[in-house]
TrEMBL record:
It is a multi-pass membrane protein. The chain crosses the membrane at residues 7-26, 111-134, 141-162, 174-193. It is found in: Cell membrane. The keyword Transmembrane applies. This is DedA family protein.
Amino acid sequence: MFDVQHWLVSLPPIAVYLLVAGVIGVESMGVPLPGEIVLVSSALLAATGVVEPEWVATAAATGAIVGDSIGYAVGRRGGRPLLARLGRRFPRHLGPAQIARAEQSFAKHGVWAVFFGRFVALLRILAGPLAGALHVPYRRFLVANAAGGLVWAFGTTYLLFSVGRAAEHWLKDISWAGLVLAILAGLVSTWWLRRRAHRIEAAEPTPDAEPVRAGSEH
């Protein structure tokens, strides 16, 4: 992510906004791309004053809504054969198991899967094509898609923008020695907690298998 952020610094602001909209838009069509990484990097970049947070959020929301709508149209036209082709091309992200989980989410939550899917990596990619392939009414899809895209884009951008500004202000008020000590303390405490968790796990007795009773059902 830091490599992406350093690369974004070299671009003019308008190029950053177009890149955010483009990457998130293509990802929302059903192509696995690092849309969230680009958004996070751009939001943190906004905290330094290189780009404006409102335009980063607007670009992200536009890409999400338009990309999902295009993905919906493609999925409605291509149907399940399209999902099968995508699965063969991207087996790690869009394989049969991933498609099945996404379908279960749609079956359980209906159009809300589109809204909340914007916050889940798998559904963020599949929501549009899958909703189209399953013939979800477009008007309901569009409402959930627009709401999810706006909340995700503006919420993520301004949350990270605020965190970045606070961190920048905090770092200016402490010495480098204090920062190094804080990092070392964090690493040591993390190591100690992991070691203790492994010890507790190793100390737990393994439960014996219960005998199978006659006539019991499994």
